[in-house]
Every structure is written in structure tokens, then in C-alpha cells.
Amino acid sequence: MIVKRVTNLKYRTDFYDIISHRDVRIALEIGVEFGYNARDILAHIPSIEMLHLVDPFDGSLTKKQWWKDGRILNKCKETIGECADRVSYVQKKSWEAYPDFEDSSLDFIHIDGAHHHHGVIQDILDWWPKVKEGCVFSGHDYYSKSKKRNVLPVVNWIFKDREIFCTNESRRELVNSPTWWVIKEGDLDFDDSVLKNSRILIPEEFYYVEEEYVEIDKF
Ligand SMILES: C[S@@+](CC[C@H](N)C(=O)[O-])C[C@H]1O[C@@H](n2cnc3c(N)ncnc32)[C@H](O)[C@@H]1O
Q: In which order are the strands placed within the sheet that holds 2-6?
């Protein structure tokens, strides 16, 4: 697998900057937590009129007990601050929320919810139809320091015939996790029957990537 590593995009905010000219109006993030990334998206893509924030915000998908008392949503609202009228809170799990959205209704999507194989595959398959043709479909943690995080092989597997890009946050220093993205072009050719098995076996070849270094000013 070849991934195009964009050397001049050091942080995810650099990525939002280069897509900010694309007339992104309706966007969506899956996995919001305290809203830090949502705040970055809103600040760096000023054309966004509505950013839908999909997260149960109730600690049901995390082991962090102290989230279960509602503090997480309050903290997120605090983070979003003055941008409150540009967001909507979709307090659901991603697999419950996707039927609420029309196909081809989103200009940009960012996935940072479940990080296990099954969850990442399901999010990509469920939400791909929701994004308009030619728009950006992205997610966090292409590389990750945690062994439990499995985004890379899933992205490589599902998008094996497409151009995959990622930001240049360092995988070796393990400080930040790169954002990956592809451009929505057509339906996905992927056999979703794999989702019937919660212990999905991804073919070995998709765990390995060759990086092609590129520079991009505008996307
Ligand atoms: C890593 S945090 C998100 C961080 C946030 N994107 C940021 O960078 O500021 C993960 C969040 O994903 C949420 N989450 C996990 N699985 C999810 C799912 N299937 N649907 C919606 N949210 C999910 C959790 O509740 C948690 O708040």
C-alpha cells in the first residue's frame, strides 16, 4: 500500500487550512469528546455553517467512569463557546445516528470515534454515502502508538484502489496521530459481510505501507 504523506501538513489544523477553500458548509465529526478538534475545525474552516457532532457524550463507549455524569457534554459546550450556533449535538452512537442524515448531504466528514477494526469499518461504510461526490472524507489516528488502535489497516483495506493521504504528524515520535483522508468518488466496492464477524481478520498486506512524500498547498 502506498500512502501519500503530505510533508507540509504538520498538524490537523494545517489539513483544515488546506481544505478551507472548498466551500465546506455542512460538516460532521464522529467522536467529539471535549470538542477540542471540533473547535479547530470551526476555527480553520470558516465557511462551515453547521458542524454536526456525533457522540453519545455519556461515557457509554468509554471506560472513563467520570464521564458518565454529564460533565463531558458541558465541557464540550464550553470548548465550542461562541461557535454554539454553528454546531448541533447528535447525542447518539454513530451507528444509530447515520440514518438521520440524507445521502450526499455532507461536505466534509471526520471520523474519530471507535478505533477497533469492526467500528472503523462500520463507520466508513455507514457514512461514506452521506458525503457528497468530490468532498473530503477523513479520520484521525492513521498511525497510532496504541496497539489496540487499528485504523491504518482498515483504511488501507477499504480504500485500496484509491489515493490515501495523511498529515505529517510523526509516527516515530508518537506524539500526535496523523489525519488520513480520501476524496469521495463513487460508491465503495467493499464486501460488508465482514461486519458479521466481530473478530475481523484483515489481510496481512494492508498492515504495511510505503510512504510517498508529497507537498500540497491547496486541496
Ligand atoms: C478520541 S475521543 C474524540 C476526540 C476528539 N475527536 C478530539 O480530537 O478532540 C473519542 C470519542 O469518541 C466517542 N465514540 C467512540 N465510539 C463512538 C461511536 N461509535 N459513535 C460516536 N461516538 C463514539 C467517545 O464517546 C469519545 O467521546
A: 87-90, 50-54, 26-30, 106-111, 131-139, 180-183, 164-166, 2-6, 210-214
Examine residue 181 and state whether it is found in any structural domain, yes or no.
yes
Counted domains in the chain:
1
Three-state DSSP class for residue 41: helix
Q: Is 55 in the pocket of ligand 1 (CB under 6 A)?
A: yes
- In-domain check, residue 107: yes
State if residue 179 touches ligand 1 by the CB under 6 angstroms criterion: no
Going from the Cα of 64 to the center of ligand 1, the distance in angstroms, rounded, reads 12
Q: What is the pLDDT of residues 49-80, one digit of tens each?
A: 999 999 999 877 776 655 666 788 999 999 99
- Counting from 1 in the atom list of ligand 1, the atom nearest the Cα of 36 is 9
CATH code (residue 126): 3.40.50.150
Question: In angstroms, what is the span from residue 213 Cα to ligand 1's centroid?
Answer: 29
